[in-house]
Design a protein that fits this description.
With about 350 residues, the chain is α/β, with parallel strands linked by helices. It folds into 2 domains: about 10-260, Aldolase class I (TIM Barrel, Alpha-Beta Barrel), CATH 3.20.20.70; about 270-335, Non-ribosomal Peptide Synthetase Peptidyl Carrier Protein, Chain A. The chain is about 40% helix and about 15% strand. The protein is built from 13 helices and 10 strands. The protein has helices spanning about 35-40, 55-65, 90-105, 120, 135-150, 170-180, 200-205, 225-235, 250-260, 270-290, 290-305, 310-320, 325-335, and strands spanning about 10-15, 15-20, 20-25, 50-55, 80-85, 110-115, 155-160, 185, 215-220, 240. The protein starts with 10 loop residues before the first strand and ends in a 10-residue tail after the last helix.
Length: about 350
Amino acid sequence: MSHRPLPPPPLRIGDLVVDPPILQAPMAGFTNAAFREVVRQFGGAGLLATEMVNARGFVWMDQNEAEHPDRLWGVAEEARPLAVQIWDNDPETMAKVGVRLAREYKVSVVDINFGCPVRQVTEKAHSGSYLLREPDRMFAIISRLVEVCAPTPVTAKIRLGCSPESINANEVAHVVEEAGAAALTVHGRTAKDMFRGHADWERISEIKQHLKKIPLIGNGDLDSADKVVAAFKNYDVDGVMIARACLGRPWLFAQAAAALRGDEIPPDPTLVQQRDVMLRHYRLVVDRFGEEKGTVLMRKYACCYAQGKHGARHFRSHVANVASAEEFYSVVDQYFPQDRPAVIA
């Protein structure tokens, strides 16, 4: 187990320097351009990522001259560094998309999803975490993407295994490195666990000894600046990735970065300020998708912003049905949590 002094050194993914070594996880349905812009305004995230993109769907859209996936909204224009995560189980399909991302979109990192546990991706499409049982296919996918994307680095995100009875992350880590990937991210649960229980950081840390030259990024249950500091202090990782905890708290990255520097951790914004952040987020979504679709998409984000606050359940019950800007602003004005002692709602 490592006990390195803080702050940790910058993370190197190929030629890309990620500083601070704190990454924003790709999360389907959430980490779109509006969310990334809000995170960027607070700072603290060394590398941001898109939602995971279905490679097969991208190719179909391209062949049929349809608009590229909504999940690539903003990618061409926004600030770098930026990673795009893609998934499928066919090396050539992945290569077609990877080379476009590297050459035309000029992304900083092409990340491969080998960790998604959702049935639609695993059992129906034999992708995501399903491929952990097929290391040879993983090798083929990674090596092909490395070949066509160079010099853009290719990375992989995995879970510990498909189930607690079939943990094979050490073997898979070797395959990922041998295939030429520039970094490995490990979520400390198995696919069968979904998001239940606790991430096993001891098992994440053990993987480091099976890697010769590429960095290891740990992911799972990092919901405070103190936990980020503890991850670097107690476990043998080169970087950390923050996922669900940041959805209603995009300032978490800035807090974690300050803690790693040894600076005083900035306090959470006041509830009034948090409401203003949410409204700014809402306007970005509506600008892209229009009022009707944007309002519906914003419902889930609004619930995240309220989570853990006094009156959150009451707010969620009302915001879950809004369908227009007028309704959204009205519900926020009436029901968004006010400055009171926080309790879990």
